[in-house]
Design brief:
This protein has 201 residues and is α/β, with parallel strands linked by helices. The protein is built from six helices and ten strands, in the order E-E-E-H-E-E-H-E-H-H-H-E-H-E-E-E.
Length: 201
């Protein structure tokens, strides 16, 4: 797959296979194409050239099916700042057919039960990342795409991310993790290295 932004390639002839239930670790410097790769897999971006399949669904023709089964947690939390933490999660539940009763446990899991009724606009970046993680886990997606999920988090929150990854793998779900944190991703079944939009290792 190739993804071009104007005249600049963001992803160049990327070809990879990830087995169901595995953790794929993606390494590389800033601007290497890691975020673009995850966004293409998660259908936030369409490939400019090439084709592929995610969870058995065609990346060009069955994007809605992929989105129903995939969650992308990236740099942008995509939260509604005027809503409370709980309201953000309840909105996600309504969008994806998840029981509203799952919200309290999801917030407790990321250590935010005490601020469930507070607006996200008053949260630190680390707290916003926790809310976004709680939202991502609500659906128990078949494929979890994590783009620098440890950025801005304290040690406790990083452990929460690690636990979420371990749980997903134990359930037989698939995780793709892009991170600069060299202490994370040690259980990965496979590691790829990206540079200038290409998979180089």
């Amino acid at each position: 797959m190739t993804r071009v932004f104007g005249a600049a390639p963001g992803l160049v002839r990327a070809s990879l296979t990830v087995e169901r239930g595995d953790l794929l670790l993606v390494r590389g410097p800033n601007g290497a194409g890691k975020s673009t790769l995850l966004r293409v897999i998660g259908t936030a971006l369409a490939p400019t050239y090439g084709s592929g399949a995610v969870l058995g669904f065609d990346l060009a023709l069955e994007r809605d099916e992929i989105r129903r089964r995939t969650e992308l947690l990236g740099h942008r939390t995509r939260l509604y700042e005027d809503l409370t933490a709980a309201e953000n999660l309840r909105f996600a539940c309504a969008m994806h057919g998840v029981a509203l009763s799952a919200v309290p446990a999801a917030l407790a899991r990321v250590g935010l039960a005490d601020v469930a009724k507070e607006r996200v606009s008053g949260f630190s970046q680390g707290m916003r990342q926790r809310v976004a993680l709680a939202r991502a886990l609500l659906r128990r997606p078949e494929l979890l795409l994590l783009d620098e999920p440890y950025a801005g988090l304290d040690a406790e929150a990083k452990e929460i991310v690690d636990a979420a990854i371990a749980e997903a793998l134990a359930d037989g779900r698939t995780v793709v993790l892009a991170t600069h944190d060299l202490q994370r991703g040690g259980t990965a079944a496979r590691t790829i290295v990206m540079d200038q939009g290409r998979i180089v290792g």
